[in-house]
Amino acid sequence: MANRRKNGLYPGISAELSALMRTGWADTERQDLQLAEQAPHAARRRAALSARFPGERLVIPSGNLKVRSNDDTYPFRPYTGYVHMAGDQVRDGALVLEPHADGGHDAYCYQLPRDSRDDDEFWTGAHAELWTGRRRSLAESERVLGMPCRDVRTAAADLAAASGPPTRIVRGIDPSLEAAVTTDAERDAELEEALSDLRLVKDSWELGELRKAVDSTVRGFTDVVAELSRAIASSERWIEGTFFRRARLEGNAVGYGSICAAGEHATIMHWTDNDGPVRPGDLLLLDAGVETHSLYTADVTRTLPISGTFTPLQREIYDAVYEAQEAGMATVKPGAPYRDFHEAAQRHLTARLVEWGFIEGPVDRAYELGLQRRFTMAGTGHMLGLDVHDCAQARTEDYVGGVLESGMCLTVEPGLYFQADDLTVPEEWRGIGVRIEDDLVVTDDGHENLSAGLPRAADEVEAWMARFAG
């Protein structure tokens, strides 16, 4: 018996059971499948990648299941570059671009075929279809993806035996395929870099998916406000669960671990334990995003007064962050240096920190020395798309050192964080954290705030909460 457990209840498989299991199954091959909506866009992306590496074989794996504990695995999430180039999400797959004489490439996908009913693997294997669900057949995948598909069980041998053009592979995704090819680490890194570069500007289909992600996220934030009383009666975990419910109902999941940070937890940039109390009088910093079925994610943050009304000090800090975000967003337009929104927001916060006496001025000197970072901590945003921090391996000169182009999608998210143990600020400031984050797409004449459906100004936040809070 394949993958038999040490303490399984059945000692083996009788010949009679094996014969019984192999017979009497209907033909479920689907003839009605159509080309996926994303397929033509993925084909254009592959053409752009092909143009960057003429005469070279390119291998982009999808990745494998990862063990959570013992025989339990994490939900599978394919490598982003594979999703973008193949328009597909299968595990244990790989996209191969094989060069041909005219300088272009032929694309094909390696995938796991359906389990054969001619042996016991289909119902005894650790990841057998009868246990985990039906996969597409190779013929079905060809119809959906619009390119040839091959049995991935031969991929390592095929690649090992391949001769002729040099090969590049994305490393760290599939060890078995990586071991089958002879490549160079620096050249492989250039392939991963190119895959990030090609995601910097989103096509119309991608922008549509990002709109779906943000719209669902707006509804998720409203759900949280409506259930705040339940969170007060329990903990931050109620908030996490409330938002996750919306993400699963309308999308694939959350795009990253939700940050549901109440009270002094709001000063912790990546607080994902989400197990603390939710107390009236404190602030709630909620940083969360719905990931669509196509794996594009939103990334939005609001800081909310749990009681429904900001205290005077909370409002003063909140207004400073809001004004910084306004200053940063005003710079987002085509042709502007990418760094402009960060610098505009950070300079505004630096000025407020000097005004409050928490860092020494003048403002230009404080900003040049980065003194504001004690309280602002992070950069003011990042690219957004299939990854919450999308295009992370792109060339620096094209990303943080580049200029904005129409179709780029980024976050603008300034914040102020006064740690609970920071003796350089008055006691009443300690334990207050505020961040406001929105998802912007650069347009031909400026930008569009995709998350404008959520209020940002303090008065608007209070009015919104009064309408929905339970």
Keywords:
single chain, 470 residues, alpha+beta, 5-stranded mixed sheet, 3-stranded antiparallel sheet, 17 helices, 36% helix
Short account of what is shown:
With 470 residues, the protein is of the alpha+beta class. It contains 17 helices and 17 strands. A five-stranded mixed β-sheet has the order 6-5-4-1-7. Strands 9-10-12 form a three-stranded antiparallel β-sheet.
What does this structure look like?
- This protein has 470 residues and is an alpha+beta fold.
- The protein is built from 17 helices and 17 strands.
- Strands 6-5-4-1-7 form a five-stranded mixed sheet. Strands 9-10-12 form a three-stranded antiparallel sheet. A three-stranded antiparallel sheet has the order 13-16-17.
- The chain is globular, with a radius of gyration of 26 Å.
Return the average pLDDT rounded to an integer.
96
Describe the global form.
Answer: globular
Radius of gyration: 26 Å
Summarize the biggest pleated sheet: 5 strands, mixed
Number of helices: 17
Class inferred from helices and paired strands? alpha+beta
In total, the number of strands is: 17
Distance between the terminal alpha carbons, to the nearest Å? 54 Å
**Strand line-up across the major sheet:** 6-5-4-1-7
Low-pLDDT residue intervals, each spanning 5 or more residues: none
Helix content: 25-40%
Percent of residues in β-strands:
15-25%
Protein name: Xaa-Pro aminopeptidase
InterPro entries: Aminopep_P_N, Creatin/AminoP/Spt16_N, Creatinase/aminopeptidase-like, Pept_M24, Peptidase_M24B_aminopep-P_CS, X-Pro_dipept-like
Domain Aminopeptidase P N-terminal: 36-178
Family: Belongs to the peptidase M24B family.
